[in-house]
Amino acid sequence: MFSRAGRWRGVDGDTLGAVAVTGRALTIVRATMPLRVTALHHVALPVSDLERSRRFYREVLQLSEIERPAAFDFRGAWFALGDGQLHLIERQGGTLRLDKPVDSRDVHFAVHVDDFDATLSQLRAAGYRDDVPADHPLWLKWNRQPNAGFPQIFILDPDRHVIELNAAD
To answer: Are 47 and 12 part of one and the same domain?
Structure first.
């Protein structure tokens, strides 16, 4: 029985792969290049009523709808979201957040806004309020100085997906 091992390295010295020979068996382990996430491409949300959700994201959050490939075999809509996208996918039953209130510790996505006060005013004009019970679908949770270190607003979309809107301090 004999044993022998070797490695090959990339230009920067990182190990790209290894070989091990033990007895008559040859094992080659090839390392892959390091995973490098460069951006969040899209967030996909299941919705129960596509047209109602389209109106919400267009009118309340003022997102621009973008072209969606026609090849899909289900209804949906795509919106520009900064450098990324928001994909709405119509499906029976929508989300699992049925009847849940705004919960900043639950699954949510966050968008950055330029003006905290203008956003707060716009949401109030759209019907969101901070003087209704926390389980109300139009409850507005906001804090100018939260633990996160930047002002935050939390709301629900029509399917009760939690959305955070935050701004620079």
So the answer is: no
Taking the C-alpha atoms of residue 33 and residue 85, their distance in angstroms, rounded to an integer, is 27
What's the count of helices (H) and strands (E) in the chain, helices before strands?
2, 11
The pTM (predicted TM-score) of the whole model is 0.76
85 burial class (0-12, 13-18, 19+ CB within 10 angstroms)?
A: middle
CB 152 within 8 A of CB 112: no
Q: Would you give the distance in Å from CA 35 to the centre of its chain?
A: 19
28 and 59 fall within a common domain = no
Is the Cβ–Cβ distance between 65 and 53 less than 8 Å?
no
pLDDT tens sequence across 34-65:
888 888 899 999 999 999 999 999 999 999 99
Domain total of the chain = 2
Residues 6+ positions from 11 with CB-CB distance below 8 Å? none
